[in-house]
Predict the 3D structure of the following.
Amino acid sequence: MTRSIKRRKFLKTALQGAGIGLAGVYALPLPGKAQAADIRIGVVGLAVHSAAFSQILNDPQKAADVQGCKIVALYHPPGNPDVDFTKEQLAGFEKTIRDAGVKIVPTMNEMLALCDVVMIETNDGRPHFNEVMPALKAGKPVFVDKPVAENLAGVLKIFDAAAKMKVPIFTSSALRYVDNIATIDKSKVLGADTYSPAALEKSHTDLFWYGIHAVEPLFAVMGAGCTEVMQPRHSENEDLVIGFWDDRRTGGRRTGTVRGLRSGKRGFGGTFFTENSIVQMDTFTGYRSLVVQVVSFFKTKIPPVPAEETIEIYAFMEAAMESRKNGGKKVNIAETIAKARKSNHQ
C-alpha cells in the first residue's frame, strides 16, 4: 500500500471519529496555504445604496462575482436636512446594515482605520469632496456614488485631487450595467434615446440629482466624444436634452437624446439604434450588476469607466442646464469643462 493511500485511510478514520466526512478534508484550508483575506470596505453615509450594498456584499451565500470584498464599517456624518432621509428611513437603513454585520463607528478616522477601500454613499453631493479627501490622503481607492458633487466644478475638484494623489476613483449609475447594454457593439451605434425619472434638487445641477440614470446608459452605448448639447424643452413635467457626437465613419454627426420624466408614468428605459438592429434597453432589476463592477474595481484598482468619460457625462448635464438657461442654444462640452475648471482656480 502506498504512503498516500495509507495517509488517506488514516485521515478518513480520524475525521469520521470527529464527525467530519472525507469530503470535508478537501474543503478545509491546506496547511501552509493562507486563504486570501477579503478586501475590507468602509462606507460613508446611511442611504438606500449603503443598505442594499451591505446585503449583497455581506451575504454568506453570495456568488463568486461579488466575493473577495466585505463591508466592515460605516460612518454616518451629519446630513443636510433639505435633502436627507427621514428618521424612520435612516433607522431602517441602520438596522439593515447592522444585521449584515457592519460596525457603525462615530468618526471618519475610525472607519478608515478598519478598511482598505472606501464607498461614499452620502445622499447629497455637496459634502462629497470633504468625505473623499481623507480616503485619498490615506491612499485608499474610492467609489463615489451619484451625484459625485453638486456641480461640474465640484466633480472636477474631486477627480483632479484623485489624479494628483494617484489614488483610483470610480463612479457610475447602476443603469449603465443593465444586462443587455454590455452586448451592444458601440462601433455600430448610430444613435440612442434614453429616459428616466428626473426629480430636481435646487442645490444641484438639474440632471445630477436623478436624471443621470438616463444619461449614464446613453454614454454606455454612444461612448465618449459628445461635443455639443442643447436642451430645447424644460417644464415641470419633463426635460428633453439632445447631445451631438461626431461620427468619424461618415464625417457626419450622431445624436443621442435624454428624456427626464417628472409626471405621469415614470421608469427607466431606452432605444438603441445600430447598423443592424434596434435594441430596447432591458428592465432595470437592481444594484447587483453595479456591485459586481465595484468589486472588480476594488480588486484591480482599475476604474471600469475612465475618469475622462465620467467627467464628460457630468459636463453633458452641466451643459444641458446652461442651454436651458440660454433658451435652448447649443453649448460646447469642452468649453463647459474649461469654464468649470477655471472657476476652481479663481
